[in-house]
What does this fold into?
Amino acid sequence: MKTTTLIIGCGDIGMTLGRQLQEAGHRVLGARRKPQALEGSGIESVALDVNDSGALATLPDADIVVYVVSADRFEESAYQAAYPAGLESVLTEYGRRDAPPKRIFFVSSTSVYAQQDGEHVDEASPIEPHGFSGQLMHAAEQLLFGHELPGTVVRFSGIYGPGRDRLIRQVSEGRIAPAAPPMYTNRIHRDDCAGVLAHLIDLTLGGKDIDELYLATDCEPAPLHEVMTWLAGKLKVEATEIIQSPLKRRSSKRCDNTRLLESGYRFRFPSYREGYAQVLEEGGFLENIKA
It folds into this structure.
């Protein structure tokens, strides 16, 4: 029988993951508030509000559940509903099933780290989030760690990719971050987000042991000024304005992906250079640039 994978919060990352899993032979269901967005994707769509216990009860059994819900606005109540409350409802529902999932994956964020002075962080680093977003993400993580169902948390760093091009547009306007003090940024391409999840799912289904926590980021933390300078070179624009860091709600830190690499994952885009080269090309940003 086909493996059934349920992706709760099936947006950009979920759809990319779903297509990859379908190619591997999975039956893929995507649950979201507006399932019309999945039309034409080949993913079976399910209308779902994760805070509606009645709707959760109608979800099919699944071998793998991926919880990749996004809060619908940057407010504490929205984060509370999307993360600890929503995940707890899903865990409660699937914890009572006769055929529970083999593993539940929760997509979290490196916003749970409070380090801000360029420190190196990994899965063992202390977690003391300052803002409500990191605090509520961490609360959801703890729910999964403490639940009887097998679970793994995947903390993504700054996600970029097709359609996630704010930094490119800032640079194209001649705006750039200051060189000093260095503000370290950590990034992961959308396709590698899906790739990491597919990799961990494959290990699970293959009976391999996996950890309960992975930090998912590319192989090269870099100062934001360096990233933007590189983009300016590709776009052939001169920096005309030094801007305050666009990472106002984030901290300067250097994330270590050693555990993920040791699990056998190999990045499609190991640094911002390969990743942004793809985004620049696919997004048509280079079409009008003269050599």
Observations:
- The longest strand covers residues 103-109.
